[in-house]
Amino acid sequence: MKIILSVLLLFTLWGCQTIPGRLTAISPFDKSRYLGKWYEIARYDLVFERNLNQTTAEYTLNDDGSVRVVNRGYDTVKKNWRRASGTARFVEADTVGMLKVSFFGPFYAGYNVLALDAEYRYALVCGSNRNYLWILSRTPSLPPDIRTLYLNKARAMGFDTEKLLWVNQIQSN
Question: Residue 117, exposed/middle/buried by CB under 10 A (0-12, 13-18, 19+)?
């Protein structure tokens, strides 16, 4: 019971703030261009993604204007695919890349697009605080110059890029 209460408190507190202080989500943001499949290139090592490689996120628009989120990854320890589905809603206008996402009922966490190239090929995303960071790409790899650019952007925003885990996107048999 104590663990359940702790988890509920964590998600309640987590849901109160959607973006870390002094950071700004991308605006203007075109949700229709952001939809589709993204490959996770790098991330902080988070318990809910532990041991996952070949991780992807797919975003589709729901009839009510919210976004359906399907995260997928291969568990290298259990040797099986894991999948999580959720819903993301815009915190402000849908032209601002600041969303809240839920995979667990009424509990929401921040999802903030901090950097995005003009063609919507690469994204830097954080959670409600600086303990959550992802670099995403439309393809399974990232060109070296884009990697450097996004690492520099993340550092300038106060993220510890040494903590990033680089995701193996190569299919294993």
Answer: middle
Residue 173 domain-assigned (yes or no): no
- The SS3 of residue 8 is helix
Number of domains in the chain: 1
Residue 75 sits in a domain of what CATH number? 2.40.128.20
In a domain, 130, yes or no: yes
Q: Please give the model's pTM, rounded to 2 decimal places.
A: 0.88
pLDDT one-digit tens code per residue, 61-97: 999 999 999 999 999 999 999 999 999 999 999 999 9
With 0-12 / 13-18 / 19 or more C-beta atoms within 10 angstroms meaning exposed / middle / buried, residue 161 is middle
171 in a structural domain: no
Q: Which of 3-12, 48-57, 133-142 has the lowest mean pLDDT?
A: 3-12
Residue 92 lies in domain? 2-166
Examine residue 85 and state whether it is found in any structural domain, yes or no.
yes
Query: Is residue 126 within 8 Å of residue 155, measured between CB atoms?
Result: no
Q: Quick one: pLDDT band at residue 172, thresholds 50, 70, 90?
A: low
